[in-house]
């Protein structure tokens, strides 16, 4: 299995996070529970990114898995050619 992240979606996922909760953002693009990890990365060499919500808020999590500021979307999906 390839160690390259798949593009799950060409745009962000709007997610409401709860203060004090830990979240595991999918880096591989294979999860069926996007944008969160479901363990589908096993064997890829890619691992989820754990982040802790400091406040309850709406975040826009990267769907293309190419963001330069993961787990949040930075607009990199607008530059994708594939």
Beta strands, count: 4
**Total discrete domains:** 1
List the strand order in the largest sheet: 1-4
Number of helices: 0
Biggest sheet record: 2 strands, antiparallel
What fraction of residues sit in β-strands? 15-25%
Radius of gyration: 12 Å
The averaged pLDDT comes out at: 95
- Poorly predicted regions are none
Cα distance spanning the termini: 19 Å
Shape: globular
Secondary-structure element order, as H and E?
EEEE
Briefly note the structural class of the backbone: mainly beta
Query: Which range best describes the helical content: under 10%, 10-25%, 25-40%, 40-55%, 55-70% or over 70%?
Result: under 10%
Structure description:
- The protein is built from no helices and 4 strands.
- By secondary structure, the protein is mostly beta strands.
- The protein has one domain.
- The protein has a two-stranded antiparallel ribbon with strand order 1-4. Strands 2-3 form a two-stranded antiparallel ribbon.
At a glance:
The chain is mainly β. It has no helices and 4 strands. Strands 1-4 form a two-stranded antiparallel sheet.
Q: Top keywords for this entry?
A:
single chain, 82 residues, mainly beta, two-stranded antiparallel sheet, 4 strands, 22% strand
Give the helix/strand layout:
Elements: E1 13-17, E2 22-25, E3 49-52, E4 57-61
Antiparallel strand pairs: 1-4, 2-3
């Amino acid at each position: 299995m390839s160690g390259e992240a798949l593009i799950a979606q060409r745009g962000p996922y709007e997610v409401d996070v709860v203060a004090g909760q830990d979240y595991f953002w999918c880096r591989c693009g294979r999860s069926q529970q996007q944008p969160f990890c479901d363990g589908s990365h096993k064997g890829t060499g890619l691992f989820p990114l754990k982040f802790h919500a400091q406040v309850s808020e709406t975040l826009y999590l990267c769907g293309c898995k190419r963001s330069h500021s993961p787990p949040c979307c930075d607009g990199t999906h607008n530059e994708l050619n594939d």
